[in-house]
Amino acid sequence: MGGDGILGIGDIERIKEATSGKRRWLKRRERWLVVLGVVLHAIYMLSIFDIYFKTPIVHGMDPVTPRFKAPAKRLVLMVADGLRADKFFEPDSDGNYRAPFLRSIMKEQGRWGVSHARPPTESRPGHVAIIAGFYEDPSAVTKGWKANPVEFDSVFNRSRHTFAFGSPDIVPIFCSALPHSTWNSYPHEFEDFATGLYASFLDEWSFDQFQSLLNSSNKDPELKQLLLQDNLVIFLHLLGCDSNGHAHRPYSSIYLNNVKVVDRIAENVYNLIEDFFKDNQTAFIFTADHGMSDKGSHGDGHPSNTDTPLVVWGAGVKHPRPISGSNHSDCGFRFVDEHMHDAPTPIEWGLNDFERVDVNQADIAPLMSTLLGSPCPVNSVGNLPLDYINMTEADEVEAVLANTKQVLNQFLRKSKIKQSNSLNFKPFKPLAHYSSILDQIEDLISVKDYDTAMKLSQNLRGLALEGLHYFQTYDWLMLMTVVTLGYIGWMVYLVLHVLQNYTSLPETMFRKEQAVHLRNNTGKVYLCGCLLIGVLCFLLFLEHSPPLYHAYTAMTIFLWTQIFSQYQFLKGLWRCLRQSRYDYIIKLLATCAVSVFILEFLVNSFTERKLYTWYFLVVGILASVFLFKSIPWRSGIPIFVWVTCWFLSVFTLMPAEIPDNNQLVIASGVMVVMIGIAAKMLDMHTERNKYWLYILNHDRQKYRFPMLFYLQELLVGLASLMVLLSTSHRTQKQELLPVHQLINWSIAGISMVLPLFSESGLLSRLTSIFLGFAPAFLLLSIGYEAVFYGALALVLIAWILFENTLLYLSKVKTSSASMRSMEGKVILDNDDRCLQLFDVRIPLIFLVLFNVAFFGTGNFASIASFEISSVYRFITIFSPFLMAALLIFKLFIPFLLVICVFSAITKLIQIPRFGCYFLVILFSDLMTIHFFFLVRNTGSWMEIGNSISHFGIVSAQVVFVLLLFAITNIYTRDIQTRSVLPSSRKAL
Questions:
Q1: With left for phi above 0 and alpha for psi between -120 and 50, is residue 296 left, alpha or beta?
Q2: What is d(CA 70, CA 63) in angstroms, rounded to the nearest whole number?
Q3: Angle 621-624-630 (CA atoms, 0-180°, nearest 5)?
Q4: CB pairs under 8 A, 24+ apart, for 517-525?
Q5: What is the per-residue DSSP string for 56-83?
Q6: pLDDT, average across residues 214-228
Q7: Mean pLDDT of all residues in 230-255
Q8: Of 77, 183, 245, 633, which one has the fewest beta carbons inside 10 Å?
């Protein structure tokens, strides 16, 4: 089935003319294929925003007016930003509790529990959940998580008036566009982590603002009258714990002292309110938006970030309740952070005698609305926690029913919008008869069967929440199917292109008359494809679908039309497979299985770098064992491959945060010089070694610049010296001397040009490229990543030696196979042979090494990759664009090395580089499909962002790799190798 073909012995001139035309046609086709790939990946990358990051917020619902008397006239909400539940409840080292006032409230006046936040545990989504009752809007990714792109309702909106004081990052979110609000925030300059020692003054500032407001009312009758109205909200945002947690960690005395500060502020607010109003008509809620990890950060779903304190007391709130075994009945319930409902209370909290009532963070919004007797925010998905509210049984049912109707209204609105835009609407069947359920609840209330009415209301609310999720994901199946079929179609199209133009299959399957027959029947396929695109796009238009829906559908149908237009080739391919020998089918299936395994390994390596350590440990052993059995050990190749693979395996065990170590950078410069000398010695003195023959300089008598190598070695040594001089002077004087800066720029710039003038032998040119980029990489290095550069180069040499060995071992077979006459095939300019099944190893090894270059010292999004001190030897004055360019260039250097070696190997074993490029894209897209299904719209912003970046990085490889190919072609296009084939032209 596979095999190399050669040009038939006949009319050479006629065949040359025909193959020249085919070469031009192939170049045009491949340019079109690259453009198609870029457009396809750009369109499909946008699909994740239509699938995963569509806002759940809808508008057009009417608020549900509650049918019960408000338990409180006003509500005070105090949010201690970044306050961990355990640090709030537990005693200090002396056995004294840090929040004595709020603790007395929990034991004597109100209820307490843990509020469970849903990741991302950040300030904005936490406050939105508390005040508006819904969790992070995933469409906020389009705003960089800085703001909600869609307007939403909140408890503040439903109040008569809201008074708010606190951070400029939080208060304006809810009050800047609210006409019935009085608010103030401190300047951004106050939020300085460096002054974390005094961050508690931010909490004092908020209290002082509120106290000034009450004092001002004594002189302002209008303000006094406003304060005496009902349905008022007072919001105090207390940022001190968050700032101190970031600056000093939550175990520090400064953070723990801030817990005492917020407790004292809560006490002062309570006393101030009671003294001012004297009516016992105020409800108080104290909570936090998120916690704080031991490292002083937050965002993920760790309990230290999701568990926050909740203390509620005052008007309309139940008093403490002694704990009993029957207090909780729904033990199987899980909160939004996946914590169990009946989590045991730690003994050290000293609250085991008092009932603990945990809630989801979004449940606080309907709790506040119920206490105020106002409608719940129309976008809320919170469930009213009845264990906090002191109401009659009839009012409790009315409150739950109002909460249920509010969630149900969202469901009905989403259902109506989707139904109006769908030709084949599929309703949410469990709520098909929701109106009869509501009538049944009303009847039960009228006959005072409150227990049954309560159960029905809660069940209906649960179904409404399920219905909201149903319509949020309504288009998922269709979109994911279309996009997945598009990716599969693209990959099938690539396979067909490679098989038709880079293998010997077409000649073995077809005759010329069949090709003519194929061309005459493709018009019908294209016509059907165009009609199908037109019909489906018309249907999407009738459904008012977004323009991108049309693009996804059209692109997918276009690809499959292209595939089916080649049905004659597909039929021939199937016939060829059926006629193949059993052992070939086994080889084909084994190759596919190994390829999928390696690609899945690469997918998992994006989240677990240490997998590369195991990979190179295993590959080092397997490759060296194979070489030991194939060639004499005296050649040194087996041991070299083993040692270099094991050496590189160390780096993915090292931390991503690279510590400064200038001595290691300087030692790496010495290592680079030694590698260069060893390669030069190999090139000059192993001419007679048959195992190295094809990578050596083919004509040592024609050195154009015999001193070039020594100049490059000198520049590497000079770069190492400048690492020492620049860093030591900058450390002592806190500045970079202009002369040092000029020398560093000159060394880096000159060294990268020199490889263009080196010898064209494979080993000579690659050694020159390695030495050419080494000075720039050394000057941009701060630690062990400089050693990684040399280690990666050694493994790349090992890859070349491995391929060179395979080339030698297959010399006789390749030579005999190349003598077969294969007339009418595509002939490439650089005398490449046909791709064979075993050649799949080349793009696979390339992808592994390409990703190792990516993750060897961290990854593209890691702190290590963007350590700003890396550029201090070139520039110290802040210039974001230049600094970013230098950092990205540093990341690109290992990629450039890998692609240069990849190009050299394709020349060495004489296979088409563009064919291998398409195989690289094919394998990348197999990974892309996997990452497509791994995209997340829940979790921490880092987790969400990483899932998007992983998908985007792999999707962009069609452009990224091609761009690097174009750059490296400047260095590798004139590399020459010793041909092992007797013919100067090979047929593909």
A1: left
A2: 16
A3: 140
A4: 517/568, 518/566, 518/568, 518/569, 521/568, 522/565, 522/566, 525/561, 525/564, 525/565, 525/567
A5: -----PPP---SS--S-SEEEEEEETT-
A6: 93
A7: 92
A8: 633
Separation of alpha carbons 276 and 270, rounded Å: 10
Report pLDDT for 693.
62
3-state SS assignment for residue 948: helix
Q: 510-544: buried (b, 16+ CB within 10 Å) or exposed (e) per residue?
A: beeeeeeebeeebeebeeebeebbeebbeebeebe
DSSP annotation of 309 reads E
For 670-724, how does the pLDDT look when each residue is reduced to its tens digit (9 = 90+)? 999 999 998 888 877 665 566 666 666 545 445 677 789 999 999 999 999 988 8
Under 8 Å between Cβ of 425 and 419? yes
Contact 568, 514 (CB under 8 A): yes
Q: Helix (H, G, I), strand (E, B), or coil: what is residue 724?
A: helix
Q: Cα separation of 599 and 604, whole Å?
A: 9
Distances (CA, A) of 493 to 35, 498, 567, 602, 691: 14, 9, 12, 23, 39
* Cα 485 from Cα 489, distance rounded (Å): 6
Q: How far apart are CA 97 and CA 842, in angstroms?
A: 65
- Give the C-alpha separation, 224 to 594, whole Å: 77
| 206 exposure class (CB count in 10 Å sphere: 0-12, 13-18, 19+) | buried
Helix (H, G, I), strand (E, B) or coil at 203: helix
Spatial contact of 341 and 358, defined as CB atoms under 8 Å apart: yes
Q: For 975, phi and psi rounded to 5 degrees?
A: -65, 135
pLDDT in tens, 906-932: 988 888 888 899 999 999 999 999 999
With a CB cutoff of 8 Å and minimum separation 6, the contacts of 685 are: none
Q: Give the distance between the most distant pair of CA atoms in the chain.
A: 110
Total count of residues recorded for the chain = 988
- The answer to whether the beta carbons of residues 268 and 111 sit under 8 Å apart is no
The H or E element containing residue 431 is none
Distances, alpha carbon 809 to alpha carbons 470, 630, 697, 902, 955, in Å: 61, 8, 21, 20, 37
Find the helix packing angle between 957-972 and 880-908, rounded to 10°. Answer: 70
- Helices (DSSP H) in 606-707: which residue ranges? 611-630, 637-649, 662-685
Q: In what order do the strands lie in the sheet with 74-80?
A: 181-185, 161-166, 232-238, 74-80, 282-287, 307-314, 111-116, 359-360
Q: For residues 128 and 174, what is the distance between their CA atoms, to the nearest angstrom? A: 9
The SS3 assignment for 803 reads helix
pTM of the model: 0.81
Burial (0-12, 13-18, 19+ Cβ within 10 Å), 18? middle
Tokens of 705: 């610049």
Where are the extended beta strands (E) located within 486-580?
none
SS3 of residue 166 by DSSP? strand
According to the model, what pLDDT value does residue 735 have? 62
Element of type H or E holding 282? strand 282-287
Q: Which two tokens stand for residue 529?
A: 């494809």
Look at the block and give the residue holding tokens 């409404």: 464
Structure tokens belonging to residue 791: 């280690």
Give per-residue pLDDT as tens, 806-837: 887 776 454 444 444 333 334 444 466 788 88
Q: Do the Cβ atoms of 942 and 872 come closer than 8 Å?
A: no
Decide the pairing of beta strands 74-80 and 232-238. parallel
- Rounded CA-CA distance 485/561 in Å is 12
Strand 5-6 and strand 986-987: the pairing is: antiparallel
